[in-house]
Amino acid sequence: MSGKEWSREEIRIWIDRVVKRTMKMDFPWDWPAGVAFYGISRAWEVTGEKEYVDYLCSWVDKYVQRGLPKLTVNSVSLGHMLITLSEATGEEKYLALAKEMAEYLTHEAVRFGEGVFQHTVSQNYSFPEQAWADTLFMAAYFLVRMGITLENESYVQDGLKQYFWHEEYLQDTVSDLYYHGWDNINKNHMSGVHWARANAWAALTMAEALGLISVFNPSFMTLEGSLRDQLAALVRLQSENGLWHTVLNDSTSYEEVSASAGIAAAILQYEKVLGQNLYGQYIENAYKGIMANIAEDGRVMNVSAGTAVMKDREGYKNVPRKRIQGWGQGLGLAFLCKLFQEAEGRT
Questions:
Q1: pLDDT in tens, 74-109
Q2: pLDDT digit string (tens) for 179-188?
Q3: Over the stretch 36-52, which tens digit does the pLDDT of each residue have?
Q4: 23, 147, 280, 323: most buried, per Cβ within 10 A?
């Protein structure tokens, strides 16, 4: 990749703007914070800015004092931040809390079939025997990270098993795109829509997981093959504006920025793992499109609201995109941090 469109200094400024705007948001102990704070955690990892860690520590400590709600598959996404806080501060309490989340997944989270996590958005909504691509970010990738951190092979294998079965259930063998969800009771993909953010959850976390496991691990080939084919399909669906439509194969649906950032970050990480430059022009186009949708105050714009597996493609096309969202901030930061690392490699 040429990187002609950006510099390390410029990306550093935008990272800080997005982080600072995210810090002005109020979050419950749930997945919007999990994704947003994953982004801030990545920002600390690439910049070393102590203010970012101090903010996250303060947020967690206050919440723990008030008492934490019952865990769900979605809310364990906060474990990503806790792993980073443990590394940044050396304080055992953050890793201990992350281990509680991993143990919840191991022993209490509802599963179906061959031990596949049933997706749970919150305590108030149940989706019996449904697998959603969202789970790959919230739980599967988290388990792989925890297993690597604690040298706990059972966590690693459980996380990788989730990837295997989600690929089996969700990746279309014709288009190589991921469906949003699978209903194991009715044996169908419900609306059968290739939703952009679902593909971002899958692509980004597969790319990250590839960077954590050995090429000699049999799961490496499973993940790499799935991601390779998915990305080959995705780049051919990039719009003229460098973004991806919320229904990937429907150009009448709006361009959605959180998914676009997640997909672009996945491409950068995939190229890093392979040590190859396959998609440089697509990244430059994505950079233009994504930066055109980040406000001066750091708000990532045109991000669709929280989205269940909708009844049909019209449902996805009508999801509002007016408000700032934690997942938009987090995935935006994931992309910017990958760019920052790429620019650092050129200096």
A1: 999 999 999 999 999 999 999 999 999 999 999 999
A2: 999 999 999 9
A3: 999 999 999 999 999 99
A4: 147
C-alpha span between 105 and 101 (Å, rounded): 6
In the annotation, is 54 catalytic?
no
266 close to 231: Cβ distance less than 8 angstroms: yes
Distance CA 35, CA 31 (A): 6
| Alpha-carbon 176 to chain mean position | 19
Whole-number Cα distances in Å, 162 to 125, 303, 308 = 21, 27, 20
Determine the average pLDDT of the residues in 125-140. 94
Cα distance between residue 269 and residue 274, in whole Å = 9
Find the mean pLDDT for residues 264-285: 96
Quote the CA–CA distance of 34 and 54 in Å, as a whole number.
Answer: 17
CA distance 220 to 18: 33
292 to 186, 288, 344: CA distances (angstroms): 42, 6, 23
Contact 100, 168 (CB under 8 A): no
Q: CA separation (Å) from 296 to 35, 83, 299, 321?
A: 21, 30, 7, 18
User: What does residue 195 show for φ and ψ, rounded to 5 degrees?
Assistant: -80, 135
The average pLDDT across 155-184 equals 98
CB 299 within 8 A of CB 324: yes
- Cβ within 8 Å of residue 209, ≥6 positions away: 140, 141, 144, 159, 160, 163, 223
User: Which residue among the candidates 16, 54, 134, 312 is catalytic per the annotation?
Assistant: 134
Determine contact, residues 189/133, Cβ cutoff 8 Å: no
- Average pLDDT on 118-131 reads 83
- 258: which residues sit within 8 A by CB, 6+ positions away? 197, 200, 300, 303, 304, 325, 327, 328, 331, 332
Q: Which residue has the tokens 């093959």?
A: 225
Give the pLDDT score at 346: 53
- Residue 30's CB is within 10 A of a number of other CB atoms, namely 18
Helix (H, G, I), strand (E, B) or coil at 174: coil
Residue 301 CA to residue 202 CA, distance in Å, equals 22
CB 95 within 8 A of CB 83: yes
Among all chains, which residue has been given the structure tokens 């994504």? 290
| The pLDDT value given to residue 347 | 44
Q: Percent of the chain having pLDDT more than 90?
A: 94
